[in-house]
Every structure is written in structure tokens, then in C-alpha cells.
Amino acid sequence: MTRAIGIDLGTSNSVVAVIDKDGAPRILTTPEGSTTLPSLVWYSPDGPVVGEAARHGLDHSPDVTVFGAKRLLGRRFDHPEIRRLARLLPYELCEAPNGDTWISLSAGTKISPEEVCGRILLALRQMAEAYYGEPVTRAVITIPAWYDAAQRQATKDAAQIAGLSVMRLLSEPTAAALGHGAHRGVDRRYLVCDLGGGTFDVAAVDVEGGVFEVLATTGDQFLGGDDVDRLVVEHLLRDVKTSLGFDITGDSMAIERLRLAAQRTKHALSTEAVAELEVAQLAELPSGKALAYSRPVKRAELEVWAKRFVERIEAPLVEALKRAGRRTDQVSETLLVGGMMRMPAVRREIARVLGKEPSIVDNPEEVVAIGAALELARLEGRIDGILLIDVAARGLSMSMGHSECELVIAQNAVVPTREHRVFPTKLDDQPRIEFDIWEGESPESTENRHLGRYAVVDLPQASAGDVLVLVEVTLDTDGTVRLSASELVSGERMQLEQVWHAGLARADVARIARQVAGA
């Protein structure tokens, strides 16, 4: 059996963990000696550069240096949040032929977020291969619990591009509880909150006798540290114009330098009351001289700027408790995970909503990857006495033609699960039956996420209604959707074609994987 690794693919930073010979998890370090790999890819003139070395691209070529690609996985270009995000990024977003969000680089080159994330995963894989001295081909990869089916498949595609077979996609809150050691303590009812660079994830998890049961998951897919950075930049841009008399809103390089400075200042204000924000070369003046910018920033000032961000924390907390059927006093412990949990205002807001002080894990940036490594050890049989029971983050529905959507698998259904629907032919000698798969529970298709259109083809010739097609819909433990079709009376398997789908085609994934491997 080839080597396997646990991966926390993050919006800002990614982490890889393995299980040592003695059974203990170990966080691997980057070539620079850090336990976190920046989730950055710089498409330099000499080829793609990943991780810490890609920061050079942020300084000199922000239009071809991609960060935050995880936020773009499986997202449609016409989503309002993607449109808002596109106005603030130094690199350009564009629409893929199927409506997905892609990235436009120089010279007309367009790449998918799956490729960017695939290169990050490949760098993590190479770190593990350097550690083991042998090939690594399998991984447990953590994802936000609220990821929809398209985002989950996009993550699997990124792994395939990196040459990794996914043993399991594990929800980040479950991984955090596992990495925290919840399975070794007394039975408890946890609320796990994971706030990182790009996402906020909340899960109600019960641990009893080594059984991890996820009761409910929710979150905000566009709430993370990157959003705070952008809120700060909005205020700083106005301050630059007022204090220095320069409007730099059209200078992508200047905005990126300001964003990086805002990020450093935000980190400092987690422990200090005041921090100095400095950018030695913000922009170039008409005279050729560099425009410098600096100012002190108070923690109280940052909290005013981030007020909109902090206020959005409450809704997912309340929703998770509602779905789990829990009151705040029925939660034994609240675990805080992710780098943004270091922000005092965030911790205060969570304490206010839940009516009790939460617990911050000792290693919030690493605990999710540790949980992924423990899960792979469990899957390989090296850890006994742990059972994970997860639920569907969203419901699945089906429709035919212009009919209303019919719910097939309900939200919070225990996975894996399988359901079916029977479709009769409506015409004599009808050659095919087409249907759509949606993520969501509304009868109105416009309120659901369209995952794909499929066709059962080469139907036997018969009178209308005599051919009954059974379509089985399986939602596996990863939360990915699998379909199969058969003729109900004979039981004969029928051919299923994909007419339209979100994400990359299988052939495109294989092609990009070959390109990345040969780079």
C-alpha cells in the first residue's frame, strides 16, 4: 500500500500531516521550515511557483499571482459574491464555457481554480515524498462542511491533478474535533467553529463512546480573514486619498501592497492595542519617486471597520443549533479553530451569542490537518474504536423538463445514502429521458443550485409508458453525487450520458494532470 497523507487545503495557508511509526501525528514543514504552506501560485515567466517563493509574485506581478483559489472552486461566475470578489482581486476572473469561475492570466491564458489548487496539493504531496523518501498517492483532504456537491467534486479534481487519490473528504469541524482529541475524553456535545482565511464553518458534533456524530452543519462561504483585509483596505484607500491626496483605486499593485500591510497589521492587533501599518513603496509618483504610506491603527478602529464582518458570525451559529435541535445551554463545549479566531472581537461575538466562553485549541492552524491524518490512520485500521457519522450539508432534488423540483435526499440525511425515482416514457418509441439534478430543497429550480443535466439513452422501443426507468441517486460519505439507471421491469442497466455539468470534464482533469506532472 502506498503512503497516504492528511491535508488541510486552506484559503490562505495549507497544511500536511502524517502518522509517525509510533502512531502520533506529525505536521510536515515546508522547504523554508514553516508548518504552513501559503496557498499561493505565481505564474512567473519561468513557470508556476508555489508557496512561500510565490510571495515574490505578489510584490511584482499580482495580476498573475493567484491566492484564495479555494474560494473559487465549484463557484458559478454569475454568483453575486464572485462578482463582488472580482472587483477587488489583483488578478482577473472570467467565465468558463459552462458558467464556472476561471482565472484569466496574461497573454489570454485561462486556468481553472482546480488547476491552481492542484498545484498547491502537489507541493504538499512533494513535501511528504521528501519526508518518506517514497511515492505518496493517497490523501484525506478536509473541506468546509457546507461545501456543495460541485465544490466537493472540484476538490477531488484538484487532488487528481496533483496525482492524489482521495480516500475521504472530511469536514473541517469533524477533523478539528478529532485533532483536538475529542475521541479520547469524556462524552460531550460540541459546537465546532472554524473561521479561516476564506470561510466560516459551524458544526454540531456529538461524541459518545468514540462515535463522532455530526448532527448539523452550516456556515458562510464568503466570510473569512480575507474579507476583513478587504474591509480594512476600503478604509485605507479613502485615508490615502484624504491624507496624501492620491487616488490609487485603479492601481492593482498598490492595492495588493496595501492588502498585505493590512493583513500584517490585523495579525498584530490580535495581541496588541495599537500597531503601525507601513508601506514603504505604495505607488510611484509622477516624478518617479516612491509614495510611502504609514499610520497607526488601533484595535478599536479595526473592530469598527470589521463590524459588518463580525455581525455575520451570529446567523450560522444560530442556524447550526436550530438544525441540531439544541439550545445554547445544551452545548458542552465550543471549539474555536482557524487563524481568525485569534481576533478578540470574533471570540467576544461567539461568547455573546452562545452565552459562554469558547475554548481555543492550542494549534488552531494545524489541528484540522492533524484530524485528517488521524482519519487516514482510522481508515487504514491503525486506530480502533472511532466511528464517524456525517450528514448531508444540503438536500438533493430532481426535475424533468419544466416541472417542479422534487426532493430526493433531505438536508442532514445521514451519509452515505441512496434514493431512487422512476420515470416512465411519455411517447411511443421514446429514445431517451432527460432529467436535472439540483442541490437544494426548494420546488423552485431558481432557488436551487443546478448540478447537471443527464440523459438515459438507447431506450428500448415500446409504447408510451411501457418503459420504466429507475434512476438511483447516491450521496456518498464525501458528499459527492453518483447516478445509475436501469430499466425497472427487466433490471437491465441503461446508459447514462451527462448533457451538462458543473466543473471540469473528466478528460480535462486528466489533461491538466498530465500538464502539471510534466511541468
List keywords for this structure.
seven-stranded mixed beta sheet; Substrate Binding Domain Of DNAk, Chain A, domain 1; Actin, Chain A, domain 4; globular; 519 residues; six-stranded mixed beta sheet; Nucleotidyltransferase, domain 5
Account of the 3D structure:
It is a single chain. The mean pLDDT is 93. Strand 21 and strand 22 (406-409) form a beta hairpin. The chain contains 13 helices and 29 strands. The chain has 519 residues and is α+β, with helices and mostly antiparallel strands. 47% of the residues are buried. The longest helix is centred in the first third of the chain and has 20 residues, at 113-132. It has 3 domains: 3-223 and 312-391, ATPase, nucleotide binding domain (Nucleotidyltransferase, domain 5, 2-Layer Sandwich), CATH 3.30.420.40; 225-308, ATPase, substrate binding domain, subdomain 4 (Actin, Chain A, domain 4, Alpha-Beta Complex), CATH 3.90.640.10; 396-503, Substrate Binding Domain Of DNAk, Chain A, domain 1 (Sandwich), CATH 2.60.34. The strands form 7 sheets. Strands 19-18-13-14-15-20-23 form a 7-stranded mixed beta sheet. Strands 1, 2, 3, 4, 11 and 12 form a 6-stranded mixed beta sheet that branches. It has a 5-stranded antiparallel beta sheet with strand order 22-21-25-26-29, with no helix packed on it. Helix 4 packs parallel to helix 13.
